[in-house]
Every structure is written in C-alpha cells, then in structure tokens.
Amino acid sequence: MGDIAGNEGSFYSNAEGYWKEVPPTVDGMLGGYGSISSIDINGSKAFLKKFLGEGEGKTGTGCALDCGAGIGRITKRLLLPLFKTVDLVDVTQEFLDKAKTYLAEDGKRVGNYLCHGLQDFVPESGRYDVIWIQWVIGHLTDNHLVEFLRRCQKALRPNGLIVIKDNVSYEGVVPDEVDSSVCRDLDIVHSLVGRAGLRIVHEEQQMDFPKEIFQVHTLALR
Description:
Blueprint: H1 2-6, H2 8-20, H3 26-29, H4 37-49, E1 63-67, H5 73-79, E2 85-90, H6 93-102, E3 110-115, E4 128-134, H7 142-154, E5 156-168, E6 173-176, E7 181-184, H8 186-195, E8 200-205, E9 215-221
Parallel strand pairs: 1-2, 1-4, 2-3, 4-5
Antiparallel strand pairs: 5-9, 6-7, 8-9
Helix pairs in contact: 4-5
C-alpha cells in the first residue's frame, strides 16, 4: 500500500467525497446490495452471541461502538437489540443525522453520534464491551488501521472484543478507485492485526452472500 501512503490526503478526501454523494438508505450503505442485509445481520448475531453473556470470560452487554456506522443499519438490527447503549462513529455527518430518524424510538439508547474519520478517531478508554468494525477497514491505510486497532484495544472493558467484518480479496491488495478504498487478502489482515498486538480468538466466513461479491470474513480480536 505504499502508493496510497504516498498520496494519503487524496485517499481519504476522495472517499469522503464518494460517501457524501451516496443516498442515506440501507441500499446506499450496502452499495446497491440492500437485499443482503438480513443475511448479514443474522450471521453477525450468531457470531456475536458466542461471546456474550454472564460468567467468567464472557463479554458484557453494556456498551458497543459501531465504526463506519453510516445511517445505523448495524446499530439498529444487531447492536441495540444486544447492548444497553451504542455509540456510532462515521465520517459523514449526513448519515449520522439520518440515523437519528432511522433508529427512531431505539435511538434513545444511543450514547453518542461521533463524526470522525477512523484514522483520527480516539475511542474513549475503557468504555466498550464490543467495538464492531464492518466494511470500513479498506478506507484506512495499513499504518492507520494498525494504530486505530491499538486505540480500540485501550477502549475495551474487561473481556471486551473487537470485531472486524469485511471483504477479503483472494490475493494481495485490490484497490477500488470508485470509493477510494482497498480490499486486502486474509494474510495481510492477519498480519496487520498482529502488528496491532491483537490476537484472533475466532474467525468465520459469512455464508450465503451473492457469488459475484468478495468473500466476507468476520474476526473476533482481543
């Protein structure tokens, strides 16, 4: 990713420009694949429920952070049903504004709407049981992703969990000029997680997605 690091400013500003033009809808959030939302959420719920609960080593259900939250699709259908409080962070203010109406009554349990790019965002220390990072790591350079994951680790409560759910390429780094992002292969993702000082406690491939899109993997990290 050296070429991106060399042109970091436009990598981020082009992505911001792209998302500013995207309609604040579920279909917009999913790049026209709104139909996969339920399959996605059900897979995520089954994944997360392996860790949540009472007792030794279990992850609490007090507070979660939705990273790259958009209008709150994941907050509404995955996180708010499982956690007492959810914070949303996204680079696009219009999406966060829309989230307030999209979440409706459920929005009363949102703690904070935070407008930041993740490359600059510092989550509050010790606040979160789960930090959910879905379809957004491709918008960070390698170094910024490693640094962000380190900050996330400091933001976890005891037995807390960082979850990355994202596209993975078959080999190497595949750039997307349209939304100014990259798709990394699993080995690269693993190595960046290791550089951040985190270990993978569980990993799964999301099944039943359309054949024409990238494979999607979910990784639980501590």
